[in-house]
Amino acid sequence: YFGYNLFHKFWTKHTRLLPPETG
């Protein structure tokens, strides 16, 4: 959905880890 891509990029940029939903 809209916003997930932004969240994913933000998450990976600040935590350098994949979001739990992808696992």
Briefly note the structural class of the backbone.
Answer: mainly alpha
| Alpha carbon gap, first and last residue | 17 Å
User: Could you spell the SSE succession in H and E letters?
Assistant: H
Q: How much strand content do the residues show?
A: under 5%
Major sheet summary line: none
The gross shape turns out to be flat
Q: Please, what is the average pLDDT? A: 67
- How helical, in percent, are the residues? 40-55%
Low-confidence stretches: none
> How many strands appear in the DSSP assignment?
0
Radius of gyration: 8 Å
Number of helices: 1
Any overview of this molecule?
There is one protein chain. The chain is mainly alpha-helical and 23 residues long. It has one helix at 4-15. It is flat. It starts with a helix and ends in an 8-residue tail after the last helix.
